[in-house]
Design a protein that fits this description.
Blueprint (H helix, E strand, L loop, with lengths): L1 E5 L3 H8 L6 E3 L2 H7 L3 H11 L4 E4 L5 H12 L5 E6 L2 H13 L3 E6 L2 H9 L4 E4 L1 H6 L4 H15 L4 E4 L5 H10 L3 E4 L1 H7 L3 H17 L5
Parallel strand pairs: 1-2, 1-8, 2-3, 3-4, 4-5, 5-6, 6-7, 7-8
Bound molecules: SN-glycerol-3-phosphate.
Length: about 220
Amino acid sequence: MQLFLDTTDVAVLKDLAATGLVDGVTTNPTLIAKSGRPMLQVIAEICAAIEGPVSAEVAAMDTAGMLDEGRRLAAIAPNVVVKVPLTRDGLIATREFAHEGIATNVTLCFSAAQALLAAKAGASYISPFIGRLDDVGADGMDLIVEIRAIYDNYGFDTEILAASIRSPAHVTTAALAGANCATIPPDVFNALFKHPLTERGLDQFMADWAKTGQSIL
Ligand code: G3P
């Protein structure tokens, strides 16, 4: 499973990328707005900080505008993935980007039917939003299971990028459901390392080791 960071914070990205466990980055207009910085500059810095795919989202709502903006974003760096919304115009743009060899991440996916269309349009990635479905009383993980089954039935190579991740459990259940990737907020990514029994066990090991008075070096 590829693990992406859902962030525009370059310092946080560099810190976690140093673990060697971060495979890419996703951004969206809300994260860009929160950064308070120029989008093109932020994307360029992120692309320089990590070799993996970096999703940068268009702001246009019409196909022509998406194509113009997406080509501009793709020109920033080879690892840019153009993010487009799952709309009729977005999928028409996705098909054109596929013909031009520009990787795409189709976002704001909330149904298996939408995911089917995105795969037919040649999307590189599909971003089903687990957390936002949970927020409205649905089971976001069911969507991952459905998309996985449909894509496997027909051999679609669009990668399932589990998004709107709210907890480590979302990451593990998405992995169990067969998602190719998960895009994870930094605080959730840091939580993946931790378990109280690990900390308790390590404290005990260190206390017992100290009693030996030994040194390994
Ligand atoms: O960036 C796409 C997705 O991860 C957004 O998540 O928490 O705003 O629903 P969230």
